[in-house]
Amino acid sequence: MNKKTRLKAIRRLKILEGQVRGLQRMVEDDTYCIKILNQSSAVKKALCAIEDLILENHISTHVIEQIRSGKEQKPKNELMEVYRLCRR
After folding, report:
1. What backbone phi and psi angles, to 5 degrees, belong to 76?
2. How many domains does the chain fold into?
3. Domain containing 64: what range?
4. Can you provide one Gene Ontology molecular function annotated for this UniProt record (predicted)?
5. DSSP, residue by residue, 26-64
6. Is pLDDT at 88 greater than 80 in this prediction?
7. Alpha-carbon span 16 to 40, nearest angstrom
8. Are 54 and 27 contacting, i.e. CB atoms less than 8 angstroms apart?
9. What global pTM score does this model have?
10. Phi, psi of 30 (to 5 degrees)
C-alpha cells in the first residue's frame, strides 16, 4: 500500500474506532433503538469506504504492475476473489 493511502486508511480507521465506541456507549446507555441502528449503519458505510480505498490502491498498484509484467493469472484470481467477497 502506498504511504498516502496507508495514512488515509489509518486516519479513517481511527475515526471508525471512535464511531464503534460511540455505538457501544449507546447500547450501554440503552439509547433508543432507531438511533443505535442509524449509528450502526454509519459504521458499516465507513468500513465499506475504507475497503474501497484499499481495493482501489491494490488495483492501481499491484494488479496493474502484475499485468504489465505479464503475470495475468494472479491479478485475475485476486479480482475474482474480491468479487466473491463482495457478493457475500
Report:
1. -60, -45
2. 1
3. 3-87
4. metal ion binding
5. HHHTT--HHHHHHHHHHHHHHHHHHHHHHHHHHIIIIIH
6. no
7. 11
8. no
9. 0.82
10. 60, 45
| pLDDT band per the 50, 70, 90 thresholds, residue 87 | confident
User: In the block, which residue shows the cell 447500547?
Assistant: 27
> In terms of Cα–Cα distance, which of 44, 42, 56 is closest to 9?
56
Question: Is 61 or 87 the better-scoring residue by pLDDT?
Answer: 61
Residue 46 and residue 12 in contact, taking contact as beta carbons nearer than 8 Å: yes
Residue type for 9, please?
A
The residue behind cell 482501489 is 56
12's grid cell: 479513517
CATH assignment of the domain containing 55: 1.20.58.1000
Direct distance between the N- and C-terminal alpha carbons of the chain, in angstroms, rounded to an integer: 25
